Amino acid sequence: xxxxxxxxxxxxxxxxxxxxxxxxxxxxxxxxxxxxxxxxxxxxxxxxxxxxxxxxxxxxxxxxxxxxxxxxxxxxxxxxxxxxxxxxxxxxxxxxxxxxxxxxxxxxxxxxxxxxxxxxxxxxxxxxxxxxxxxxxxxxxxxxxxxxxxxxxxxxxxxxxxxxxxxxxxxxxxxxxxxxxxxxxxxxxxxxxxxxxxxxxxxxxxxxxxxxxxxxxxx
Length: 219
Fold this sequence. Notes:
Blueprint: E1 19-20, H1 23-31, E2 35-42, E3 45-56, E4 59-64, H2 69-76, E5 79-92, E6 100-111, E7 113-114, H3 118-132, H4 145-149, E8 152-157, E9 160-166, E10 184-187, H5 209-212
Antiparallel strand pairs: 1-9, 2-3, 2-5, 3-4, 4-8, 5-6, 5-10, 6-9, 7-8
């Protein structure tokens, strides 16, 4: 991972005490999610698109249709900004000014590179599927040649990345601690609900163990 003093793009300037630049922290935040926001420049203006992602070592993998506007933009200018954020709780303070959220976030700046070749694209899709639903790649039908032609995969290096985190309770003004207003944190957790079978599923087909395992809370 790049050191913050070597790459000013990733240096956190607002509340720098919340920043982290080490690979372990950045990877842990990325591995905990599967939706990112991909920022590109289109005709001189910024465009941000939500999309699925996975981490493959020191790079991010994103995929979509060749007709996807963001991918057409990447062919003209491959520099991107990718962000991932997890909201862990609402911080309820005694004053409106000091309300906040507890969060973990990562910002990645880099040059996107398209993955070429059916086998390389297939390998990248396997990484993406297994990140989102481990075990699903071996359970579902693999993509055929026509489906691979309708899919583009791009990667973004995680060499220029920064993390930013907030934890703990509210930080009020000293004179407000005597107020009778309740203050504290409302934790928020992303969790899976019961599986909902497709209405066209043949009778007797039950969920495989790797999917029932996903019903456990995912932090």
